[in-house]
Amino acid sequence: MTTETKKPHYHGHRQRLRSRFLKGGAAALQDYELLELLLTFAIPYSDVKPLAKCLIQHFGSFTQVLDASGHRQRLRSRFLKGGAVALQDYELLELLLTFAIPYSDVKPLAKSLIAHFGSFTQVLDASPQELMDFTGLREYSAVLINLVKACAEYYLKEEALKRKPINSLDALVAYCRTAMGGLKDEQFRVLFLNSQNEIIAEEIVQEGTVDQTVVYPRKVLELALKHKATALILVHNHPSGNLKPSAADRELTRALVKAAKTLHLTVHDHLIVSRQGYFSLAEHNML
């Protein structure tokens, strides 16, 4: 004997909506019922009547709900045709938020986030907790924003740290600026290279306060021996945004270059990065 599967309570209601529409067209339904019927094709296994009513209440009318949907479609079309440069910063963030908040007008939220944090980049640099502390954002949205930043960083890292000789600093700088440029505290990293000038490892050697980072040459040399490196690239960030190397930066560089020579290691460069750009001590003959 088979047991008949019990249909959800809204199944008969949906069938009645479809029948009324087929007999009398849109005029046979109230505005929220028309929207409800439309939503059943996108959300087939939930009662969407409350959602339809909320959407009309939020946007003001059935027509304005469709207008909001059209605006999102236009954003997507512009992005698909022209990429990120085809959108203003708040529109790019707005488009991103539509994937986390599908049934609300997120343009005001996107503008508010950029105004609050200072820029599109700084929104992506914000921690999940900082994002969730901001009115209107929940964990799902905060995770999506952080995930975009993490994916971009991972992509740039793969490009920068591929086992290939470094012929240009561009990819490396792009990765370092994405990974470190938005940090609130100083961080010191070392990239280890082999005899073919291929990056074979990366280590975060020290994380410090905004004002100072203490790096011990012995620790760097131990890591170089561990990775069997023949050369190093030093990288740290300036959270203040000022890219000019401090006296302490220059002194640290000299100490590391001197210590590296004792093991026949070459320090190719010391990069200072921020959101604004980078400074190469090698390019300025300061090694």
Task: Kindly describe this structure.
By secondary structure, the protein is α+β, with helices and mostly antiparallel strands. The chain is built from 12 helices and 5 strands. Strands 2-1-3-4-5 form a 5-stranded mixed β-sheet. The chain is elongated, with a radius of gyration of 27 Å. The model has no long low-confidence stretch (mean pLDDT 85).
Q: Tell me the β content.
A: 5-15%
Which bin fits the share of residues in helices? 40-55%
Strand ordering within the main sheet: 2-1-3-4-5
Measured distance between first and last alpha carbons:
85 Å
Determine the structural class based on helices, strands and strand pairing: alpha+beta
Topology:
Elements (H helix, E strand, L loop, with lengths): L10 H14 L6 H10 L8 H11 L2 H21 L6 H10 L8 H11 L2 H6 L2 H6 L5 H22 L9 H11 L6 E7 L5 E9 L9 H10 L4 E7 L9 H15 L4 E8 L4 E3 L7
Parallel strand pairs: 3-4
Antiparallel strand pairs: 1-2, 1-3, 4-5
Helix pairs in contact: 1-2, 2-3, 4-5, 5-6, 9-10, 11-12
For this entry, give a set of tags.
elongated; 287 residues; single chain; alpha+beta; 5-stranded mixed β-sheet
Short description:
The protein is of the alpha+beta class.
